[in-house]
Amino acid sequence: MRIVIGQGSCGIAAGAEKVKKALLNTGVSADSISITGCIGMCWLEPIVDIYDDENKLTRLVKVGEGDAEKIARFVETGDKALVESLVVSDEDSEFLSKQTRIALRNCGIINPEKLEAYTAAGGYEALKKALSITPEEVIEIIKTSGLAGRGGAGFPTWFKWNAARQSAGEEKYLICNADEGDPGAFMDRAVIESDPHNLIEGMLIGAYAIGAKHAVVYVRAEYPLAIKRLRNAIAQAKEAGIIGENIFGSDFSCDFMIKAGAGAFVCGEETALIESLEGHRGMPRLKPPFPAQSGFWRKPSNINNVETFANVAWIINNGGEAFAAMGTEGSKGTKVFAVTGKVKRSGLVEIPMGKTLRDVIFDIGGGMKTDKDFKAVQMGGPSGGCIPKELIDTVIDYKALGATGAIMGSGGMVVMDESTCMVGMAKFFLDFTAKESCGKCIHCRIGTKRMLEMLERITKGEGKEGDIELLEELCYSIKDGALCGLGQTAPNPVLTTIKYFRDEYEAHIKDKKCPAGECSDLIEYKIIADKCKGCTLCARNCPVNAISGTVKNPHVINTEKCIKCGKCFQSCRFGAIVKE
Amino acid sequence: MINLTINGKAVQAPEGSTILEAAKAAGIYIPTLCYDEAVEVYGACGLCVVEAQGIPKLLRSCSAKVSEGMVVNTESERVVRSRKVAMELLMSAHDGDCVAPCQLNCPARTDCQGYVGLIANGEFDAALKLIKNKIPLPASIGRVCPHPCEKACRRKNVEEPINIAQLKAFAADMDLKSDSYVPETAPASGKKVAVIGGGPAGLTAAYYLAVMGHSVTVYDMMEKMGGMLRYGIPQYRLPKEVLDKEIAIIEKTGVKLVNNVKLGVDFTIKSLKEENDAVIVAVGAWKSSSMRTKGEELDGVYGGIDFLRGVIKGNAPEIGEKVAICGGGNTAMDACRTAVRLGAKEVYVVYRRTRAEMPADELEIREAEEEGVIYKFLTNPLSFNGENGKVKSITLQLMELGEPDASGRRRPVPIEGKTEEIDVDSVILAIGQKLVTDDVKELSLNERGNIEADPDFFTTSIDGVFAIGDATNRGASIAIEAIGEADRCVKVVDAYLKGIDVETRVPYISRRDESTIDYSDREKKARLTPEVLPADIRNKNFDEVSLGFTEEAAKEEANRCLECGCREYYKCKLLKVAQRYDIDPARFKGEMPQKYTRDENAFIERNTSKCILCGLCVRSCREVMDIHAIGLMGRGFKTDVSPAFALPLNETKCNNCGLCVQLCPTGSLTEKFNLPKQVPLNEEYTEEFVEIDGKKSSVLVSRYNGKVLRVIPNDAISRNSGLTREELESKLS
Amino acid sequence: MDTKKVDLSLLEGVLGEYAEVKGSLITILQHTQDIYGYLPREAIELISERTGIAASEIMGVGTFYTQFRFEPVGKYLIMLCQGTACHVNSSELILQTIKDELGIEDGQTTEDGLFSLKCVACLGCCSLSPVMMINEDTYGSLTPDKTKKILRELREAAK
To answer: Which of B629, B634, B635 lies at the smallest CB-CB distance from C56?
Structure first.
């Protein structure tokens, strides 16, 4: 039997490393334990997969250190009853079985730290195939596939490759944007941590197609494990002659470099990324000229996102038509989403374009985590928007999602329930963009700050008549005037929440009320006397002694003293404390 | 060559040029604050956006290249809207005062900071000339003005405001002592203007119209010119010899003065209009207001301005030994102090509120008290009681202060049943003055009985007839108000005479939020006031009370000025662009990104709170000079321009080349003046050439009133020469 | 704060490898921070000297990216995730708990030099939200109680 422990960042954070140690302590031989990357069922981490000699899988979930003994005995005896309580439910298994995995095809299956594991899964065959045809033919296959940029903009990949290929000059760069900065998105991290060679292979094919001799990956510094595994993979590929001179005996040579970002969301914008690669402040350059003409070191450069490259090898292996067979008229292939928030099953979901939001959130994601109703889903992070429950049947397609005011984005899908304040949500994103604005152009530097200030006023109950209209005016002005994509899309969270939840804004402004009960300045905590058992727990938890009462008698909150920290609300075991 | 259309005009531009370059070559202005040919295109400000047909996004014209057949609009509605919001955002984060608050609070917008600064520098004649741009009677006004400027002066937040009014009188007195300044007049326009009324409003209008080349005659009913300045202000405050000298200077500009002629008797407005191209009515308010109190008709009850006029004309009315003055304004002060000087033994001032609410100047209140005046605060006349038709006593209602009224002052309310009676020989009612409406019956009047004049254009019900001053709209006010109106009216009349349009919209300027200003680093220094005659001497005669500033005291007092207004006001590119659009940055009022910090070396002063982050300084220091003294620090809203480790400029490699200052579109970086006190002045810039190591090199020279203020290197040779500004100046031919 | 003299010899390896390599400033700064825990001024001056990049440029880059620090940090650097999923799952409460427990604000270090708190961009462990990282270790599904326990254990371990 083989033991495979899921060791993506999430798994490790959930305790996978501890489980591994505990297993070793039980005497299980180190040789029989291997690791894999992100399985994608993040809510069930740590996950331990056990393959028997026929390669039949028993998946154990939410494994703790204390389960090690049981597992060891199961491995020894094959008696499944020992671990019955840990075996993944059929229902949870649907989370994976309902997906179509292309970019994530090896994730959570192979060992990301071993080149052999990748080649055993058919790795680097696509590169060999690509090198046997002309770069133009490679581009043609990508064109047929309909692959579009998965970073968010959805620009046809073949078009960018072709532009870079057509650009004059010997010296060209192929760059991978792994600066996954959207809060709530972690697809790229999962790909690099779980299948780094797939990224390398996709990039090498891209480099060959555009005629680049240099490939660069720009990874955000917050992903140390991804950087470690990618470095390891690059070293292996160099060792194996996959990176370097005359790859697979062809005329094609390409070197490979990793640059770690240093914490700036704006570096996801391609010209800012280039500035950062060159060691400067990550402030976007004016376009034109576009990177395809003048990019890294002013040489023709092509930049694609991790997920885009993760599809390339599969497309070359299976043909453009196979990829294009999935999806809708305008959006081909699959898309990976990081489904999080108030959803029951949160994790990575890869599905063909054309499915609906309902399919992802309810069918695969299992619906809401608590008994509160679904309210909206946020897509595209700070550049995207909130899609309300009325539009839950929207088809996943660049155009259809764009029509809602949100965007496909890089794949973050944050599910919200009735307890999430939508003005607060807009404020959260504006706080993010205002902090991440590079400060170069007026509209973004000052505009996002002023929007944030207005939203702060509104959520504090200091909003005034006309604020919504002023916000809208400022939004359209920023969209028109900002220099780069960060600023141009920064108003989207505000515009979509105003569009779909205008009444919530009005409630804050006119009635000084937060319908979701989230804005602390606009709520009051009260104790329902009938429900209060007089346990005194709330009073003991109150940091300002605002709660009075005697044992076994109903308590009372002094609203004058209350600082609305919510500690009483969380501590009450009888649901006797309410927010109003 | 590429053919394109910009704003409907066919334009040709070389291939590869930007829209901005093409527009500039075609004489089409596109605003920009971060572009300069000296450095690489940056694209930060976004003001140069234009709309091109068929392209959905706005284009930044500094980087977008021209293409064949392109149709560009540089001023479309969408473009203007975008620029407007950009400027509103930018100004909402630009923490600076274009103009000092003293100047803004002066009804005539006199450049107080300018002349105070020039006085501090000992440039008295330049100071006088600057004052005379706005006030033709500064020696008189300096003495009598209740100085709203000083109320706005920020020095009060340190200890006390600058003595601006007295400094003005000082500069004017210096001028009157020697060859007085008479401005050059423009060539004769051939247009004739009649001014009715020779008070501050009429004389000011006449003076500036004459300077503009128009032929002006002032008609006045009294024996001498000056209006209320002469007949309403006592000699001890404004010696008439001073007023005479200033009127003589006005006459030197070619103004004709005609006295002893009365409107309605010797001429009518219509008759003057027939003989002139325009008429300005500035007749003033010459009737004392009534209190509507029982007994006002008794002998011995006088109107305040009637009383003062009688004294000045030498026929003072009989006031006896006990005099009560009703009112708390400056006319009441003039009346009571005059009564003291006439020999009255008991002089009362009856005022229904307290000292704190008195509208009169604090100095006047104090000096009157020193001279023996007795204040009866919180009293109000109920009746004037007479005997044989002559006033004998006053019954006073005692009052107390209640809730604040519309003016914000606490309203006096009677204390039921409490009265007091004082014996008097005479009563002077100093509670206001009104227009004699019969004089102006040819014009439409408003419900207050004043002439109805357009508040911006000063037009009346008769075409070509304008009206200003105390006789109009809201009625009597202070002299400087009338002077300000006259100055603005002159611009309208001049345009009327020339048949052109005139802009009366007050252009946008940036102002700091007073509540955010920190004065803790300012050293306290007491306000200086000229010496005055001792109370026991001055209360017996009509000699001028104030002895005026000495030169040393004037310079010292002027040096207290905090220099609130921006030195780059006259050449600020940011302000010019802001004023092009009808902006309202208050919509986006919020946190300011930078605290006011000042860093300076021998020539350059940096003020981060005004920085708009165009990056021109940083880029020129790097790209042109390769010095890298400063860089952009931090990011986002709080991005800042600063040397590494926030070092002062002095400890960087800065070689004082001045390029950053030259490129700074606003007052964030300024070149210091060659003057001890820095003053915002409308300098004249010329490009001149100097020889450096045998090579000809360009410098920019700024001069004011003939004096060199700054010398700025203007090419690579002078920038890299390492010469100081003094050394460069010494090389000027 | 720590006024110990900065041992610049520790930088030699990094400078030897990258000083001459175009575009390596960020990499050099990252290594420098790994060595000292922050970017000491003396180190920046040396980097400037060796790379020929002006100190104003280096500081411009250093202050642009949130990763870089100019003051020493505590033994335990708490990086609290500010991502969307964490926000939706009440990371605000965790922030408050840390502040209350340690008596410091975002960006500050405790007086005993043990803990520094920094709110950071999304750590990408959204399924475990709310999440924080302390040095290299990630802690997920935090609750106020769990957070307190973690901090107290670390404090205990440091004794």
So the answer is: B629
Q: Which residues pair with B267 in a beta bridge?
A: B263
- Do residue B46 and residue A435 have CB atoms under 8 angstroms apart? no
B42 close contact with A: CB closer than 8 A: yes
Question: Which residues does A contribute to its contact with B (CB < 8 Å)?
Answer: 264, 281, 285-288, 434-443, 445-450, 453, 470, 473-474, 477, 480-483
Q: Which residue of B has its CA nearest to C54?
A: B628
**Distance (Å) from the C-alpha of residue C30 to the closest C-alpha of chain A?**
8
Cα separation, B7 vs B15, in Å, equals 19
Q: And the tokens for C50?
A: 């060796």
What distance separates the 2 farthest-apart alpha carbons in chain B?
A: 101
CATH architecture of A524-579: 2-Layer Sandwich (3.30)
Report how far residue B139's alpha carbon sits from residue C148's, in angstroms, rounded to the nearest whole number.
Answer: 76
Fold that domain A2-93 belongs to in CATH:
Glutaredoxin (3.40.30)
DSSP 8-state secondary structure symbol assigned to residue B289: P
Chain C, nearest residue to B645 by Cα: C59
- Searching chain C, which residue's CA lies closest to the CA of residue B653? C54
Cβ A151 vs Cβ A408: under 8 Å: no
Instruction: List subunits contacting chain C, requiring 3 or more Cβ pairs under 8 Å.
Output: A, B
Give the integer Cα–Cα distance in Å for A4 and B294. 109
Contact of A338 with A365, CB cutoff 8 Å: no
Chain B partners of C60 at a C-beta cutoff of 8 Å?
Answer: 631-633
Q: Which region, left, alpha or beta, applies to residue B604 given φ > 0 means left and ψ of -120 to 50 means alpha?
A: beta
Nearest by CB to residue B43, choosing from A281, A447, A483, is: A483
Q: Among 3.10.20.600, 3.40.50.2300, 3.90.550.10, 3.10.20.90, what is the CATH number of A334-417?
A: 3.10.20.600
CA distance C144 to chain A (A): 9
> Contact B634/C63 with Cβ under 8 angstroms?
yes
Domain A422-509 class in CATH? mainly alpha
Nearest Cα of chain C lies from the Cα of A164 at a distance, in angstroms, of: 22
User: ipTM of this model?
Assistant: 0.91
Q: Shortest CB distance from A481 goes to which of B41, B42, B49?
A: B49
Residue of B nearest to A439 (CA): B636
Mutate to test the interface with A, among B33, B39, B89, B623 (most CBs of A within 10 A): B89
User: What are the residue ranges spanned by the domains of chain A?
Assistant: 2-93, 115-324, 334-417, 422-509, 524-579
Q: How far apart are CA C136 and CA B175, in angstroms?
A: 78
CB contact under 8 A, B613 and A445: yes
Phi, psi torsion values for C130, nearest 5 degrees = -75, 150
A115-324 classified as CATH 3.40.50.11540? yes
Inter-chain contact A438–C64, Cβ cutoff 8 Å? yes
Per-residue pLDDT of chain A (580 residues; tens, 9 = 90+): 899 999 988 888 888 999 999 999 998 999 999 999 999 998 999 999 999 989 999 999 999 999 999 999 999 998 999 999 999 999 999 999 999 999 999 999 999 999 999 999 999 999 999 999 999 999 999 999 999 999 888 899 999 999 999 999 889 999 999 999 888 889 999 999 999 999 999 999 999 999 999 999 999 988 889 999 999 999 999 999 999 999 999 999 999 999 999 999 999 999 999 999 999 999 999 988 899 999 999 999 999 999 999 999 999 999 999 999 999 999 999 999 999 999 999 999 999 999 999 999 999 999 999 899 999 999 998 999 999 999 999 999 999 999 999 999 999 999 999 999 999 999 999 999 999 999 999 999 999 999 999 999 999 999 999 999 999 999 999 999 999 999 999 999 999 999 999 999 999 999 999 999 889 889 889 899 999 999 999 988 887 888 998 899 999 999 888 888 888 888 888 989 988 8
Token pair of A311 as six digits: 């599809």
Domain ranges within chain C, ordered by starting residue: 8-64, 76-158
Among the CATH numbers 3.40.30.10, 3.30.1700.10, 3.30.230.30, 3.90.226.10, which is that of C76-158?
Answer: 3.40.30.10
Interchain contact, A449 vs B613, CB within 8 Å: no
* DSSP letter, residue A86: G
- Please give the model's pTM, rounded to 2 decimal places: 0.91
The set of chains that have 3 or more CB pairs under 8 A with A is B, C
